[in-house]
Amino acid sequence: KADFRPWVDQDLQDDTEITAKDDDGNDWVDSNEEEDLPHVPYSPPRYPEETMLQRSKDMYALLNQRRSVRFISPEPVPREVIDNVIRTAGMCKFGAHTEPWTFVVVSDPEMKHQIRQIVEEEEEVNYRQRMGDKWVSDLARLRTNWIKEYLDVAPYLVLIFKQTYGILPNGKKKTHYYNEISVSISCGILLAALQNVGLVTVTSTPLNCGPQLRLLLKRPANEKLLMLLPVGYPASDATVPDLKRKPLDDIVVHI
Ligand code: IYR
């Protein structure tokens, strides 16, 4: 059918285990149950224009090198670096400051392998059936397929879950406004933080794998998989497609 859009309709879909009982509406927290917040002065550094210009160029130079890399080295990466990168991603302030994310960092080889088995099994069906001929042919020049060696090889797999609502220590639920875009912004900052330390990843959104991966990783039903990032150094023989970026004039409109 013409409006068949598996990347929208299935990719992020995980309606498992949110039962009528979970949704009964009585156990949501009221804003007046939350403590009042003091407001404090805020004055981040202000740079001279010349410094601003230089910093804008430096950051562009750094992030302009970012590529999706599917060939990742098995070399170990210090855990503290990953922790700091995730701390940075968790700084993202959005959606009434609900911090609606869980970053699951997998380094255990057996668990990585189980993730690989789930992802490859579903991706094979995706490529052969669910994605459809047009999507598969649109991707052909990127030379991707359902074999995901990086899921075994990368020292870390970071699975980012959005919390569709929060659960407070007293068991009450808290609304997580704009949780998907909040977590997406946080993922963007995570990608920049990885680039900043010289690590690589590929932003994978394994279609139809969310529910199984959530159960494997024992995450609760309010958490839905948004993205899976294999993280490590690039393999010494890593290649990437020679893509060109749109020029500034194609992406900006000044009015
Ligand atoms: N999820 C599949 C397919 C895929 C989809 C897009 I859009 C890409 O940019 C690349 C791959 C996979 O990871 O192979």
From TrEMBL:
Residues 1-47 are annotated as: Disordered. Keywords: Flavoprotein, FMN, Membrane, Oxidoreductase, Transmembrane, Transmembrane helix. Residues 24-36 have a biased composition (Acidic residues). The keyword Cell inner membrane does not apply. It is an enzyme of class 1 (oxidoreductase). InterPro entries: Nitroreductase, Nitroreductase-like, Nitroreductase/BluB. Residues 64-233 form the Nitroreductase domain. Its cofactor is FMN. GO terms for biological process: tyrosine metabolic process. SUPFAM superfamilies: FMN-dependent nitroreductase-like (SSF55469). Pfam families: Nitroreductase. The keyword Cytoplasm does not apply. Residues 1-8 have a biased composition (Basic and acidic residues). One of its GO terms (molecular function) is iodotyrosine deiodinase activity. GO terms for cellular component: plasma membrane. Belongs to the nitroreductase family. This is iodotyrosine deiodinase. It comes from Collichthys lucidus.
